[in-house]
Design a protein that fits this description.
SH3 type barrels; L,D-transpeptidase catalytic domain-like; five-stranded mixed sheet; five-stranded antiparallel sheet; single chain; alpha+beta
C-alpha cells in the first residue's frame, strides 16, 4: 500500500520543478525580448545620429567663429600624441551624444588632422581650428582615422624662443620673433593645421598655419587672422616682439618644422 504522504510529497516536488522550469523558460524569453529591444534601441540611436542635418551646421574652419564651442580646460597640457582625421564630414558635439553645434570636414587647406585631448567610451575630444582660440568638441571615434605624432612644438613668447621636441627629447631650440605688444601671439594650446608652399611670396618658402587666431586683429592681409609659423628674410627680427601675432622662425628651424605632421600639438606660453 502506497504511503499517501510520500505520494503527496513527490507530486509537490514535481509541481515546484514544473513551476521553476516554466519560470526559467519565461525568463529566457524575457531576456531575448529585452536584448532585441535594446538592439532596436541602439539601432534607433544610430539612425538618429546618422540623420543629423549637416547642412544646418557651420563648419569649424579657420574662417569660422563658433561661440558655442566649449573651451580647452588644460591650455598648457600635453597629450599622448594621438591625432585624428575625419573620414567624412562629421557633426561636432559639446557633450557626447547631445545635439551637435558644428561640423568638421575632411579637408581644409590640407587634410584635417586634429589633436586628441580625451576619450570617453565611443567618443573622442579634439581641438578645433575655429575661433575662439582653444575651442574643443567631441567626435564619434568610429568615423576617425588615427595616427600618432612624436613631436610637440613649444613657443615661449617671454623668452622669444621655439623648441621642437620629439618623444620628449629636444630636436632644436631657436630664437624667434613673436607678436608685438599691440598684436600679441595668443597663448594656449593649439596645433599644426596646414602646410602651404607658395612660391608667389618672398618672405617664406613655407607657411605653417596653426589652429589659433589673433586676439586683436580680425584679418591678416584679407585672411581670417590665422596665426602661423613661417620664415623671415631679415634675421634681425629674431628675439624681438615685432610681428602681427605670427611666429617668425629662422631657415634651419623651418627645415625641421617641415618634417612635423599635421595635427601636432603646439603649446604657446608666457615663459
Amino acid at each position: 500500500m502506497t504511503d499517501r504522504r510520500t505520494t503527496s510529497t513527490a507530486a509537490s516536488r514535481r509541481g515546484v520543478l514544473g513551476t521553476l522550469r516554466s519560470g526559467m523558460a519565461l525568463l529566457a524569453v524575457a531576456i531575448v525580448v529585452l536584448a532585441g529591444l535594446t538592439a532596436c534601441g541602439d539601432q534607433g540611436n544610430e539612425r538618429r545620429r546618422a540623420d543629423v542635418d549637416l547642412t544646418s551646421l557651420v563648419a569649424s574652419t579657420t574662417n569660422a567663429t563658433i561661440k558655442r564651442a566649449p573651451r580647452d580646460e588644460d591650455p598648457t597640457g600635453t597629450t599622448d600624441g594621438r591625432v585624428v582625421h575625419p573620414r567624412r564630414t562629421l557633426p561636432v558635439y559639446a557633450t557626447p551624444g547631445r545635439r551637435p553645434f558644428a561640423k568638421i570636414t575632411r579637408k581644409q587647406m590640407n587634410d584635417t588632422w586634429l589633436p586628441v585631448l580625451d576619450r570617453k567610451g565611443r567618443w573622442t575630444q579634439v581641438l578645433l581650428p575655429s575661433r575662439p582660440n582653444g575651442s574643443t568638441g567631441w567626435l564619434r571615434t568610429a568615423h576617425l582615422q588615427e595616427r600618432r605624432t612624436p613631436y610637440v612644438i613649444r613657443v615661449h613668447v617671454g623668452s622669444r624662443r621655439l623648441e621642437l621636441l620629439r618623444d620628449g627629447d629636444r630636436v632644436g631650440s631657436w630664437s624667434v620673433a613673436v607678436g608685438a605688444p599691440a598684436t600679441p601671439t595668443p597663448v594656449g594650446r593649439t596645433f599644426l593645421l596646414g602646410s602651404i608652399v607658395d612660391d608667389g611670396q618672398s618672405y617664406s618658402p613655407l607657411i605653417l598655419p596653426l589652429g589659433a587666431h589673433s586676439d586683436t586683429l580680425d584679418s591678416y592681409g584679407g585672411g581670417p587672422g590665422t596665426v602661423a609659423l613661417h620664415g623671415w628674410p631679415d634675421a634681425s627680427v629674431f628675439g624681438q616682439a615685432v610681428s602681427h601675432g605670427c611666429i617668425r622662425v629662422p631657415a634651419d628651424a623651418l627645415d625641421q618644422l617641415r618634417q612635423v605632421p599635421l595635427g601636432t600639438l603646439v603649446i604657446v606660453d608666457q615663459q
